[in-house]
From TrEMBL:
The keyword Signal applies. InterPro entries: Solute-binding_3/MltF_N. Pfam families: SBP_bac_3 (PF00497). Residues 41-252 form the Solute-binding protein family 3/N-terminal domain. The lineage of its organism: Bacteria, Pseudomonadati, Pseudomonadota, Alphaproteobacteria, Rhodospirillales. Keywords: Signal. The keyword Flavoprotein does not apply. This is Solute-binding protein family 3/N-terminal domain-containing protein.
Length: 256
């Protein structure tokens, strides 16, 4: 009896000794996505500093589920996002494009999630004389700091025909356009169409230019991620091929 009691006590002690290791083994790895207030709806919807919902959150949750991981969101200012992904401060930056960020080292781009087009919008009252992108000569165009626009304004900016007016986010540019501080705004069609409707500007704002060439909207993965980067890009492949991405896009934009 004493021997049995001793064996039971020993077994209990072994279980307690192993418990921390068992807990650690059951913990899911963390997949950190960069986020920030520079990302407008429908990409993200913030309450104070918390990401509540949006396209980014839905995609991150779906990818994390594929990897049996937990999604985490780290607030990264726009100007530090490239540094964060190349140094591995975050694992993934989403809803961007190599055409915007340029060549980056130490990263792997995912499959395109969807194709977007650069568009330019203006106040309807000012747009009557605009027939082509060259008609924007001398105008102040709202842009996002650090972004390139290869399929729309970059050539006319380079030639000095128009002027960039950088802001930290798209909502600030829309407010400036509405107040008359700037003459036009350039950005992706999905974001601009959503925000123009959300702000109730449909009767005031019109599209004056849509790029013929599309921009692939992708995510970029740090090769320094604790989860092997190839596993992460494979997870993006799966949610694209199995229709999950399409369902998420339809939730925020019925035209996708």
């Amino acid at each position: 009896m004493k021997l049995l009691k001793s064996m039971v006590i020993s077994l209990i002690l072994i279980v307690f000794a192993l418990a921390p290791n068992i807990t650690l083994a059951d913990e899911k790895p963390i997949l950190t996505f960069g986020s920030g207030k520079h990302m407008p709806p429908p990409f993200v919807f913030h309450f104070e500093d918390y990401l509540v919902t949006g396209l980014l959150k839905d995609i991150a949750t779906s990818v994390a589920k594929e990897l049996n991981a937990k999604s985490h969101f780290s607030h990264i200012p726009r100007k530090r996002s490239v540094d964060a992904i190349t140094k591995g401060t975050v694992d993934v930056l989403c809803l961007t494009s190599p055409k915007w960020l340029g060549e980056l080292e130490g990263v792997k781009w995912t499959v395109p999630l969807y194709d977007d087009h650069e568009i330019i919008i203006m106040r309807k009252a000012d747009a009557v004389h605009v027939s082509s992108i060259n008609s924007l000569k001398g105008l102040k165009i709202g842009t996002i700091s650090g972004f390139n626009y290869p399929h729309s304004i970059d050539p006319i900016i380079k030639n000095g025909l128009a002027k960039r007016r950088d802001a930290s986010n798209l909502i600030a540019n829309l407010e400036k356009l509405n107040s008359g501080t700037i003459d036009a705004v350039v950005d992706g069609r999905m974001k601009l169409n959503y925000l123009v409707k959300a702000f109730g500007y449909e009767d005031k704002i019109t599209t004056v230019f849509t790029s013929k060439n599309s921009v692939p909207i992708q995510c970029v993965v740090s090769k320094q991620s604790e989860i092997p980067y190839q596993h992460i890009t494979d997870a993006f492949d799966r949610i694209k091929s199995n229709g999950v991405v399409q369902k998420i896009l339809k939730k925020y934009d019925g035209t996708q």
